[in-house]
Design a protein that fits this description.
- By secondary structure, the chain is mainly β.
- It has one domain (about 1-135): Immunoglobulin-like (Sandwich).
- The chain has strands spanning about 1-15, 20-25, 30, 35-40, 45-50, 55-65, 70-75, 90-95, 100-105, 105-115, 120-130.
- A 5-stranded mixed sheet has the order 3-11-10-6-7, with no helix packed on it. The protein has a 4-stranded antiparallel sheet with strand order 2-1-5-8, with no helix packed on it. The chain has a two-stranded antiparallel sheet with strand order 4-9.
- A hairpin with a 2-residue loop joins β10 (about 105-115) and β11 (about 120-130).
- The protein is elongated.
Length: about 150
């Protein structure tokens, strides 16, 4: 069985020698001056493949607005256990190039990951139109801009 260990938007990500390198993980708001606009960030997934399930799988990732796909990426995952660590799960990092997806307007969007036609994970994000020069990403409730602004745990 394949599990989704992680699925998120990030500022940037690469895979080198099977290792995932991520900057700015967990993007959930993109700010654009005008629309339609490019998404501009990649989707990142880490799949956990059990030793007894290293066969061919079809991975489909889509970015959608109101259940209408804007872009879709398909990946065929082929596996096979061998070597001294064949009894351990394999962690497969994927950086999915969806940054060119055109967001038609501000609002809520979803990215969905399916494995062998089974929906496994969905991540929601919002596109926001900036109101003027230099506007920053809207703050999330309870999140400050410096360590002293972070509310204490109670």
């Amino acid at each position: 069985m394949i599990k989704v260990a992680a699925f998120f938007l990030a500022d940037a990500a690469t895979v080198r020698e099977g290792l995932l390198n991520v900057l700015g993980a967990g993007v959930n708001v993109v700010v654009r001056p005008t629309f339609p606009a490019p998404l501009g960030v990649p989707l990142v997934a880490v799949l956990e493949v059990e030793p007894d399930d290293r066969t061919t799988h079809q991975i489909v990732v889509s970015v959608q607005a109101d259940a209408t796909p804007l872009v879709q990426v398909q990946v065929q995952l082929e596996g096979g256990a061998s070597g001294p660590f064949a009894d351990l799960p394999a962690y497969v990092p994927l950086v999915l190039p969806v940054g060119d997806a055109r967001l038609p307007q501000p609002g809520r969007y979803e990215a969905a990951l399916a494995i062998d036609d089974q929906l496994m994970s969905v991540v929601a994000f919002r596109a926001h139109q900036s109101q003027g020069a230099g506007e920053q990403r809207p703050q999330q409730p309870g999140v400050g801009t410096s360590p002293t602004d972070i509310p204490p745990f109670v």
